[in-house]
Amino acid sequence: MKSDDYRVRPGKKISLNDVPTDDARGCTKEEALVRKPQLLLHLTKLQERLYAEEKQSLLVVLQTRDAGGKDGTVKHVFTGLNPQGVNVTPFKEPTPVEQGHDFLWRVHPHTPAAGMIGIFNRSYYEDVLVTRVHGEVRTGEVERRFEQICAFEELLQSQGTRILKFHLHISKDEQKQRFQERLDNPEKQWKFSANDLSERKLWDEYTGAYEDMLRSTTTDTAPWYVIPADRKWFRNDVISRIVLETLTDMDPQFPEVTFDPKTIHLR
């Protein structure tokens, strides 16, 4: 797997209708399941070093349509990591207090501190997707928000935060199937909302909004990755490998001790 195969390049237009949602690139589910324990082992070791070093942090942004797999990604990719070093923040509809501030006001307190991995289950990108599709902001304001988002991410990076952004790309048929599975399973019915159906009717409008978002806010240092997400096991495998690749590149180190361990005599 080459992570660049899924990366959105700055300045390059993207048509999501031309990007497959179920392409496993020749990988089989069995191969992915065999690889998973080794990936998790390496992720765990790197997270421990990141936490101990306390100089860098990693922010993982997950964006997708309803039933796109955000919760499943968090559960399967990051399971087994030390909970002390991971924060997951779900961003829902803004509260009245949050609406009284700029759209990034509610986000900054949840960005990962040094040593931490932060995961945004939805994010500030909702404010250039939902708000745009529903006509709550005009085109000019959306473009300004793109610029503000890029500046915000540049600020985070200047303070040692690496940013990975994943668009979990599912098909309309797959979404329908997942909705039906929720309706058929009493333990999953709570995840279904009548609002999901009204949003589904705006599929094409959301496609256009996503394409503009990807094109306008992917950068060399805070890239977007479009992940084929119809096959959950493949989605998890690809994201795990990209996160591992990034943490390896960050190369966190255990801090040097300020004493000679050989001089310590325990009694």
From TrEMBL:
Keywords: Kinase, Transferase. GO terms for molecular function: polyphosphate kinase activity. InterPro entries: P-loop_NTPase, Polyphosphate_phosphotransfera, PPK2-rel_1, PPK2-related. The keyword Kinase applies. It comes from the Bacteria. GO terms for biological process: polyphosphate metabolic process. Pfam families: PPK2. Residues 34-253 form the Polyphosphate kinase-2-related domain. PANTHER family: POLYPHOSPHATE:AMP PHOSPHOTRANSFERASE (PTHR34383:SF3), POLYPHOSPHATE:AMP PHOSPHOTRANSFERASE-RELATED (PTHR34383). This is Polyphosphate kinase. It comes from Deinococcus ruber.
